[in-house]
Each structure stands twice: as structure tokens, then as C-alpha cells.
Amino acid sequence: MKLDKAKKRIAKQINKGFDGYPQITLAYLGATADCATEVVVSFVAESGAEAQEQRFVSTGDVRQDETIQSVLIKIIDRANARTVTEIAGVAIRKP
């Protein structure tokens, strides 16, 4: 899947807003606010359930990594996520 297409599909899901569960949250982390080298995908099956997390790491910016963005789409699709949220910006990861 092309990078632009994957990013558009993710953005479309995020823009829909809260629509119930299952819910997926994307959080980007990096050493600086300009480059996210890690993405944390949190999955919550139902209200009150504990979140399951999966991390993907790259040497470059994960937001520009076609493979990682395609995997995020597959995770969203396979989980039948009704809600997808994204934590704004890049959180600074402490060494």
C-alpha cells in the first residue's frame, strides 16, 4: 500500500471521532518532537477493559515508513475498530 493512501485511511478513521468499541489509539514517541521513531498501538476491546499494547520501532520517522503505516491499517481492519484516536504530536522519549 502506498504511504499516502495508508496515511489518508488512518486520518479518515481518526476524523470519524468516537463511535464505540473496539478502540485503537496511536501514540508516537521520539527523541525529538520532529522525528517519531516509535509508535505505540493500544487496543481496548470494550469499556473498562485493560488496554493491550504493541510497539513498532524504526531508525527513521515511523510516520513516513510505508511498511509500518500499512501494518497500522491492517491492525485497524482486523480488529474491526469502530474508533481510532491519535495522541497529537510526538511525545519525547526519555533515554
Task: Describe the 3D structure.
- This protein has helices at 3-15, 66-78, and strands at 23-30, 38-44, 52-57, 83-92.
- It has 95 residues and is of the alpha+beta class.
- The chain has one domain (3-92).
- It has a four-stranded mixed sheet.
- Strand 1 (23-30) and strand 2 (38-44) form a beta hairpin.
- Helix 1 (3-15) packs across helix 2 (66-78).
- The model has no long low-confidence stretch (mean pLDDT 94).
C-alpha end-to-end distance: 33 Å
Tally of individual helices: 2
Amount of helix: 25-40%
Instruction: Please identify the oligomeric state.
Output: single chain
Query: What is the percentage of strand-forming residues?
Result: 25-35%
Q: Average pLDDT, to the nearest integer?
A: 94
Low-confidence stretches: none
Beta-strand segment tally: 4
Strand order in the largest sheet:
3-2-1-4
Shape field: globular
Taking the sheet with the most strands, its summary is: 4 strands, mixed
Short summary of the structure?
The protein has one domain (3-92). It is 27% helix and 33% strand.
